[in-house]
């Protein structure tokens, strides 16, 4: 059976001191598998899509920890395993705290195995046979090789008639605004569905307008089929067929905000792949994102009935 959604990117091991402890004084860490594209695959799977996360991992205990950690959520994994001693498993450390300290992320992902992944190593036919293929701007930020690989996979997917989806997902700790702008705007040529945070558009595209203007502008300039603009606690909107659909954010108590955008993307894509219209997809995406914020870790371990309940409690929407 072919996949509804295939995603490609790095998944790291996330190490977090419990109880808002400082990294420099922590004596123990919680360990979880965490990565934008795998988070998205899991969220989509939780809402009914058949999903596969594709990547490259070191053939080590840590690499297998990532693979096993993702499989437990029910998604498929399609991994290129390498015994190359020059690559490793990427990790990141998350120090959580409230105001005024705030949270802090420390990356330790240099020379991760995925940074060497080539299209020739990957099962590109799996992407060609899927309904949709998804990756993010994090992936090309990791290495020149991944810029080539991600671009090749997007092109192969689009050429085969597979819907291509791309979340800009800008990370200032990985590359500069100038580098990001040059690369992602090249990717835009082979993207059907674009997801972009308004703050990222301002950071890397130097865009000064509001979300509605941004969606119209991007759709016109790059000929996307759909543009989704997220606005944090202001909700999200989507441009499709020259119509703007708006969705407010659902109220939520935040336990862990990491992975909120991935949950949104996964739910949106799952709904669209199941035949839902744009407004319903936005609503389910917003509800899944709200639920994710109540769950520790990067992954939206939600259930469809939970998401249904949130959607049915708040039916505010605007289309114009």
TrEMBL record:
InterPro entries in the record: KDG_KDGal_kin_Halo, PfkB_Carbo_kinase, PfkB_dom, Ribokinase-like
Residues covered by the Carbohydrate kinase PfkB domain: 4-299
Keywords of this entry: Kinase, Transferase
Protein origin, superkingdom: Archaea
Molecular-function GO term, any one: kinase activity
Enzyme class: transferase
Listed SUPFAM superfamilies: Ribokinase-like
Keyword Transferase annotated: yes
Enzyme Commission number(s): 2.7.1.178
Keyword Kinase: yes
NCBIfam families: KDG_KDGal_kin_Halo
Family label: Belongs to the carbohydrate kinase PfkB family.
The protein's name in its UniProt record: Bifunctional 2-dehydro-3-deoxygluconokinase/2-dehydro-3-deoxygalactonokinase
Species, as recorded: Halorubellus litoreus
Organism phylogeny: Archaea, Methanobacteriati, Methanobacteriota, Stenosarchaea group, Halobacteria
